[in-house]
Write a structure and sequence with these properties.
The protein is mostly beta strands. Helix content is about 0%, strand content about 45%. The chain contains no helices and eleven strands. The strands form two sheets. Strands 2, 4, 5, 6, 9, 10 and 11 form a seven-stranded mixed beta sheet that branches. Strands 1-3-8-7 form a four-stranded antiparallel beta sheet, with no helix packed on it.
Length: about 120
């Protein structure tokens, strides 16, 4: 498994931007597809975005398409989630996850390792 540590959460107003980071301890970081998931209060964890091992392929939930961008830096062993034009419904805990697989997995069950989460609150 991969040890993952998220950072970058906070409280912002609607329309603002945040960038989440997820640092991975694993030296074989490039072997893992990486994903971000969102869990709103009282709700199940939901897929947000995923990026393939190579970084060449990404996939997004419809609710964030055009607003969020996932990227990865294989030198820093870090995956990012740039969140623009934030909305109140984006509020919740954001989790980083790693999947030792090809492609761009989107199902929670496909991911082997999870970070502890970082809180994002969007409120006026």
């Amino acid at each position: 498994q991969v040890h993952l540590v998220e950072s970058g959460g906070g409280m912002v107003q609607p329309g603002a931007s945040l960038r989440l980071s997820c640092a991975a301890s694993e030296r074989t970081f490039s072997s893992y597809a990486m994903g971000w998931f969102h869990q709103a209060p009282g709700k199940a964890r939901e897929f947000v975005a995923t990026i393939s091992r190579s970084g060449l392929t990404t996939s997004y939930a419809r609710s964030v398409q055009g607003r969020f961008i996932i990227s990865r830096d294989s030198v820093k062993n870090t995956v990012y989630l740039q969140m623009n034009n934030l909305k109140p419904e984006d509020t919740g805990v954001y989790y980083c996850a790693a999947a030792n697989t090809d492609g761009t997995p989107i199902d929670v069950a496909e991911f082997d390792s999870w970070g502890q989460g970082t809180q994002v609150t969007v409120s006026s």
